[in-house]
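hey m, so remember when u said the tokens were messed up on ur end? i reran from scratch. heres the input so u can diff it against urs
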Amino acid sequence: MLSIKPKFINNSIFDSKIKSADMEKKEKWLGYLIGPAGALLFNAVLATYLNVYYTDVLKLTSVWGGLFLMIFPLASKIIDAITNVVMGYVIDHTKSKQGKARPYLLLASILIPITGILLFVVPQSNETVEVVWVMISYNLFYSFAYTIYNMSHNLMVPLSTRNSEQRGVLAVFNNVATVMISGIIVALIFPMLILPKLGVDKSSWITMAVILSILAMPLILLEYYHTRERVTEEGGTEEVEKSLSFKTQMKAVFTDRYMFFLLLYFFISTVGTSFKNIALVYYCNYVLGTYNDGITQTMISVLGGIPMGIGIFAVWPLAKKFGKRNVTLVGFIIFAIGSFICYINPTNMVQVLVGQFIKNIGGLPSAYVFMALMADTYDHMEWKHGFRVDGAAMSIYSIITVAVTGACTGLFNMFLARAGYVAPDFINGETVAYIQNASVQHTITFFFVGLEILTSIVVIVLLAFINVEKGLDKKQAEIAARKQQA
């Protein structure tokens, strides 16, 4: 069985700055809040605006009769799925002083900036050259660089500590970074101050990409130096895990009820969220407001983001009192109600803003405590099987994270092209946008505010089967006893 021991991480210069057996203050703020901000910011910008760059700046909507922007994201995710499984195997069989997932944050700090810039510096040549460059750069970033970062980053909370309360706090801080980036910078500041200046000027988009890419490197390094894999350091299962095949670990993932339903819930909710994120800019430009008006998307983000800010203080106390699963389930009921309010009158600004506010209140538990719930499931499976499945389970989680986004992008572009979407032009230094027909507007509206009504209902049903928190303290005590005995 492959055992990977990177030589470059055995020197003390690569040691974590976190020395305490308990969670440290700088660990929360630097390792889980500020550190991840660089990569998460760049990824959030790409999730919302990369497709706009492809459709409006590079004007790839009509390539291959409109099929290119549908087929290439879907095909790319086959590669992405393979690399995620490989990365899961690599992580589970990496044994080093620095842990099994954390060392790859170092590699990601170099790869993310390089591949991120390549996404945007598409040469102005013939159509074939542009298409090939887009396909290669897209896969270098998503199937290679971001896969390495995403899996390593997402395993930091489950591997940080066995203490459920401390782990929950780190999960909240970790998700605060995501919410702050997507809810404040990308959805609030970006459309109000940056997007209007970018327009469809390619050089401006490239400059933006270079700045965000360079910013990511020192912040990823900050995350690396201020995180620690205390669970990995416990040891006690190395010989068992070394003898296991990846197939055995994957079988354990898919046959465990809690993990299966948890990943299925994540898949369904990610589908709804991905379509919403892709459609957001188009909805604000062509349904609710006018092209890059700098205010419509900002207003939606402000009313939607306020609950996320409040949730930092409210969610974890509620989760501790009522349970992470229960609070999340009630949240999705509220989420569905908010989505329905938006959908019944999608051109009414006041009604949409009210719906977005309610919707985001409902989304608070899912945003802040999901990774803590997944960490509980990891412990449950270790108790049940006698070995951990961090890499195997995280490979599925990461496939969902990135593959669903690509698949949804392809499908959204297909529906957009078939509905008759007309991309804006850049004439005499000015961006000229066109009014879209009713079919395009209906398509955009469904994917932004309609689909999540359906996905929320499905998730509510799935959450009823995820009662993994019951008896978790006893299971963790048994795990500790086994390790002590071993």
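this time it looks ok to me. The two ends are 22 Å apart (CA to CA). if urs says something different then somethings off w ur setup not the seq
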